[in-house]
Amino acid sequence: MTTLATPPQETNEPERPALITPRKPKVGRWALFAVMVGVAVVMLYPFWVMIITSLESEQQFLSGGGFSWLSWSGLSSTIPVGQEVLSSTIVCSASIFVILCVGLPAGFAFSKLRFRTSTSVFLVIVSAMMVPLQAILMPEFVNVTKLGLTGGYFGAILVYAALGTPFSTFLFTTYFRGVPDELIEAGIVDGLGYVGVLGRLIIPVAVPAIATVTVLQFIQIWDDLLVGLLFIQNTNERPITVGLAVLAAGRTTSIPELMAGSLVSALPAMIVYLGFQRYLVKGLTMGIDR
Amino acid sequence: MSVIATKAPRPMRAGRMTLRRRRQFAGFLFALPAIALVIGFIGVPIGQAIYYSFTSWNGLTSQWIGPSTWSQAFHNSNLWTALQNNALLLLSVPFALGLPLLIAVLLHQRVAGWRIFRSIYFMPTAISWVVLGLVAERFFAYQGTLNSIIHAFGFAHTNTNMLGYESTALSALGITFVFTMIGTNTMLFLTGLATLDPTLEEAARIDGAGRWRIFRSITLPHLSRFIQLAFVMTVIALFSALFSLIFVMTGGGPGYATTTMEFLIYQTGFNQGDFGTAALYGIILFVLTGIVGIVQLRLIGSNE
Predict the structure, then answer these.
(1) pLDDT tens across A19-41, in order?
(2) The domain B71-303: what is its CATH number?
(3) Contact residues on chain A for B42, CB-CB shorter than 8 A
(4) How close does chain B come to A115, measured CA to CA in Å?
(5) Hey, what domains does chain A have and what are their CATH numbers?
């Protein structure tokens, strides 16, 4: 994003601002700044609501204001946040692990070890990206239930993995197309074998792609509701997003406590997002920005 | 499988052939888990959904009925309500694209602190639509922020409760949807703007072109591919990602006012236990998103 010829440091450009705004430069800049602050207020609104509301007790919330730690101190008795965050973490990391283990070799195969019909197989897998889970929800639910996988985390992990595999395969394939064939040939000549080439040569150069898949899938799976809601039947194993949604739909939980729980659920995804912003952008614009 | 036999010395050409075969076989094996996962969990259920759409099915036992299930489904007013809700929600797409475009152009001006603004604008993208739905519910509630704003503008006795009425609930859902899409689409457009050659704008400016002219004749055409991609992503999200918002904000109500296709599938299957009809609705949703999907594949394809 910083590939522009002009460095983005505003202070070092004595000439450019004059070129951009020949008329009334000062006023224009200030107006622009004011608009940006306005947009920022709108975008920060959800966080403001969550923080302010969670710092009220239920009575204060209903009567219109006040300050109390009550919603936070009583949080774990209403919403089992600890257990739910743990469930979310388990489901997320296991699903991402499967998605990487399946998508990376497939991407390597579709880009470098092409076999007969590999082009059409690749197209079929990529088209699967477009299939929304709701379209196949009923058979999927019955199949996974019949396999006896809705009791623990396995059903949800497999469904998430299957839904994430088309995208990760697509991303790894496009990424590996940029790797020179000579690298693989050299590895084969050295007697590494294809598994060795994959493990020792391909995975090390794939780190940025791995990061992109991980970050995107983490946010997607952590934030998801439908799969966790249906494919994890045991209420003690519910991920946090599901726990929140079910309590919210029940309409008996106090709003301040729901907001505190929301903040807890939002925090990990936000940390990941702020830390790995550039991988997120890369993943979103994959296939168009090259 | 003749791989093992070729370890023994052989004429040059035969050796090459098997090397190529070996590579293909390795490729097939590497791709196999992905193929199996996608076929098993996406391909097979599509076939099953088509089959079960012709049956009466409660999840345990199914009974073949035939094409009459389809004609019956199209006589069901709930299906038409859901389709109509989806169609009405499409009206929010121009806003879900226009606002991010404007924000991206503003960010691209790079006023002081634009990086911080960028991070702030994208922040809601990281949080779950369940959480954003909860916040939106607070916003539209009788004692919520929207009414506070209206009161602050001097209309002290005007009170709205958009989620509470059939006539306004869908609009509230649409507004929330636009908000949730702002981060992603702004990100897309900003990436597009970053690939724009700044000397082009500069040259046009020297030639005396105004800002609007530059935007229309240089910036917009350059962004067309990004706008197309954002359009497809937004429409797909509209058909298949509203579940979380609807689940926490309205539960599909009041009445069926905010029941979209995807929510109708969930309700029909899990609240009414009518798995067959839900599978049938799934096929309809599949076809709808398929049409949009073909457009996207064309976009990706034309790029390579």
Answers:
(1) 444 444 567 788 888 999 999 99
(2) 1.10.3720.10
(3) 128, 131, 136, 162-163, 166
(4) 4
(5) 10-54 (no CATH), 77-284 (1.10.3720.10)
